[in-house]
Write a structure and sequence with these properties.
Layout (H helix, E strand, L loop, with lengths): L5 E2 H8 L3 H10 L16 E2 L1 H10 L10 E5 L8 H14 L4 E5 L5 H5 L11 H5 L10 E2 L5 E4 L8 H5 L8 H6 L8 E5 L6 H9 L2 E6 L5 H18 L6 E6 L7 H13 L14 H7 L4 H4 L4 H17 L12
Parallel strand pairs: 3-7, 3-8, 4-6, 4-7, 8-9
Antiparallel strand pairs: 1-2, 5-6
Length: about 325
Amino acid sequence: MEQIRYSSRRLAEVLGLSVRELAEAEERGAIQSTVPSDGPTQKMSYSMQDLSSARAALNRMPPRRPLRRQLFLNFKGGTGKTSVSSSYAFRLAEMGHRVLVIDLDSQGHASKCLGVCGEEAERTLFDAIIKKSPLETVILKTGMPGLDVVPSNLTMSTIDLSLMPLAAREFRLRNVLKEVEGTYDYAVLDAPPSFGLLNLNALMAAHDLFVPVLPDFLSFHGLKLLFETVQGLEEDLQHVLDHIFIVINAYNATYKIAKEAKEALEKHYPDFLLKQVIRQCTKFAQASSEGIPIFAYDSESKGAQDIQAVLDEVQARIGAPVRLKAVESA
């Protein structure tokens, strides 16, 4: 992801400044570009490190918070969960939060969406949970300051079997994450579409559960199983999630079936369904193929706009401000 660049207008937008305020900050030397220019007529651009340096210099950091563990899970596959979770995590980091993405899927798709090749990773969460390696020895940098990832590859495929004979096997992930409390504001967990001991660990570690669903009636079956599982955790293990957020993904209002499915979700899950939907957007697939999140691929796309709106709605519910208001220049 290190090839990601920001224009002056985009940098100002991310920092919560007007273009004029950005120019004045540049004149004061508070903002500088480390990206070499191709010529005198080339427009100035900025790297992700420039964004981080500018945020620190201008004191545009959001409030720190105790580690908030947020799990993206649906027992039904193909709902776009990884594209949503990786873009959500990237946006949090882009706005100044400290974020750790934990890739729980042996396919390593969340790692790939953030520009990290999980196949080449020497260690995964398997080493931290099963072999008790320090979590910090597993974490990799993504290129975006403040956004790190615990990668995944095929070594994760046997983790359920390895967990089975262990004592307190349901709490291994929660205990491992205690090692990074104070280091990160958010842990974003991307889980495979299945139920086993690893996903049980993820549910037991999570404060918030995000359930991306497609606007079709096959999604209801997966939701039913998931809510039954969550209810079982409450009854048997006394673990109650703070929030459950159902978010409709790949929504196309011109499809009758999509509108009917949305109405059904509003009827049966009114307390959990987010008002904001994520519209159908081909830019997600294009961004994932290049190993970059939707915000870096096309920040003005429908997908980026909708992820931002979802993030804002979620933050309003959990009580933590995300957006930084523009301030008057000194």
